[in-house]
């Protein structure tokens, strides 16, 4: 009797385990009739230009009313940013947008400084003759928006009646707009992005918008800008590194160096619009005017963030200063490395007596 009772005791856990497994199996293998309805109405979408003789009936009204040829012409007039958004609409649009014609024109326009022959050689050697792969993998400067850098620094204020130790938080932005032909526009201002984006063009002559040229080599960007209207000509040399938060984004620029140097009057004549060729090969401490020493600036080197023109009005730089500080601190807590050195410059709340945002109107680096 003792042995039989012991065997029954040990068999109870095994039976419980078997029952639990059976319940689990019943849960996973439960018949769900609605799953059989998935994918019943989905039909293969014939790509544009397909030679298939089988008729494809598209149930979507927009696809029946808009022929493929007309849809192709509409997509051909879109910029790559809009093409990417249109590819998220439906499968047919996504397959149509994969046509290499769209990406070939985008690549030849983005890297037009390299020349068509050089671009075709790079396409064959590095990107397996895929224009779309080249567009996503090759570093490029985006021209459909502005690169914005937000910079802050602390400045002591003047003592007042109730405030004996005021502190001012000065905030300003660097704006850069690039063009496919190698030209760029540069502006320093405390104005918000939505106000600056309207006059960041070559017609803006009275808004302290400076013109320059740039070159792109792999992910390195070299730019030179001549400050006009000065008795002692001064050139601003900028070196940046391209990167992206996702593949093909190219939405970040790290500011590696920012140097101001003097140039001779003879070097300026005839090269006002293109100083990049004049300063090519210069060292960081090199200047050609003894009255204007070479200065390598260490402040205001925050990374540039790209903002498309379509999103300029709702970007963070268009918000109030207090809202910007809150968002930057939130990004710091989330571990966003681009904003570490920005948030570290803010004083703690118990040390900051007053906060004033100066509107900087002068020409500064």
Number of helices: 12
Computed Rg: 30 Å
Estimate the strand proportion.
Answer: 15-25%
Helix-strand sequence: HHHHHHHHEEEHEEEEHEEHH
Strand order of the largest sheet: 1-2-3-4-5-6-7-9
SSE layout and pairing:
Blueprint: H1 2-28, H2 61-65, H3 68-76, H4 80-86, H5 91-97, H6 100-110, H7 116-126, H8 131-137, E1 145-156, E2 167-178, E3 183-189, H9 193-196, E4 210-217, E5 220-227, E6 234-243, E7 252-262, H10 265-268, E8 295-296, E9 304-308, H11 321-333, H12 340-343
Antiparallel strand pairs: 1-2, 1-9, 2-3, 3-4, 4-5, 5-6, 6-7, 7-8, 7-9
Helix pairs in contact: 6-8
Structure description:
It is a single chain. Residues 327-365 have low confidence and may be disordered. The chain is α+β, with helices and mostly antiparallel strands and 365 residues long. α6 crosses α8 (131-137). An 8-stranded antiparallel beta barrel has the order 1-2-3-4-5-6-7-9. A hairpin with a 2-residue loop joins β4 and β5 (220-227). It has 12 helices and 9 strands. The chain folds into 2 domains: 38-98, no CATH class; 145-343, no CATH class. It has helices at 2-28, 61-65, 68-76, 80-86, 91-97, 100-110, 116-126, 131-137, 193-196, 265-268, 321-333, 340-343, and strands at 145-156, 167-178, 183-189, 210-217, 220-227, 234-243, 252-262, 295-296, 304-308. The longest helix is centred in the first third of the chain and has 27 residues, at 2-28.
Give a short synopsis of this structure:
Helices cover 30% and strands 21% of the residues.
């Amino acid at each position: 009797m003792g042995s039989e009772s012991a065997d029954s005791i040990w068999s109870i856990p095994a039976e419980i385990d078997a029952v639990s497994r059976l319940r689990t199996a019943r849960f996973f293998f439960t018949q769900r009739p609605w799953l059989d309805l998935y994918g019943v109405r989905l039909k293969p979408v014939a790509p544009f230009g397909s030679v298939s003789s089988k008729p494809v009936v598209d149930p979507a009204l927009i696809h029946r009313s808009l022929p493929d040829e007309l849809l192709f012409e509409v997509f051909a007039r879109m910029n790559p940013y809009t093409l990417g958004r249109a590819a998220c609409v439906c499968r047919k649009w996504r397959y149509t947008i994969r046509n290499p014609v769209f990406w070939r024109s985008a690549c030849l326009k983005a890297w037009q400084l390299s020349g068509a022959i050089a671009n075709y050689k790079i396409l064959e050697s590095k990107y397996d003759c895929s224009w779309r792969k080249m567009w996503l993998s090759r570093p490029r400067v985006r021209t459909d928006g502005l690169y914005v850098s937000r910079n802050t620094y602390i400045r002591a204020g003047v003592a007042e009646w109730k405030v004996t130790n005021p502190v001012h938080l000065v905030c300003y932005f660097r704006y850069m707009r690039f063009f496919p032909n190698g030209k760029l526009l540069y502006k320093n201002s405390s104005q918000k992005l939505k106000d600056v984006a309207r006059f960041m063009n070559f017609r803006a002559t009275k808004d302290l918008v400076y013109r320059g040229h740039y070159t792109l080599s792999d992910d390195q960007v070299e730019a030179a800008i001549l400050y006009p209207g000065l008795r002692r000509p001064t050139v601003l040399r900028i070196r940046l590194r391209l990167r992206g938060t996702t593949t093909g984004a190219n939405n970040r620029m790290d500011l590696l160096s920012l140097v101001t140097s003097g140039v001779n009057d003879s070097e300026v004549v005839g090269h006002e619009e293109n100083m990049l060729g004049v300063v090519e090969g210069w060292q960081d401490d090199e200047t050609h005017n003894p009255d204007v020493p070479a200065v390598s600036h260490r402040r205001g080197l925050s990374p540039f963030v790209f903002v498309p023109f379509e999103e300029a009005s709702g970007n963070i730089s268009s918000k109030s200063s207090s809202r910007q500080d809150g968002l930057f601190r939130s990004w710091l807590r989330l571990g966003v490395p681009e904003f570490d050195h920005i948030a570290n410059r803010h004083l703690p709340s118990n040390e900051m007596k007053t906060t004033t945002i100066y509107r900087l109107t002068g020409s500064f680096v």
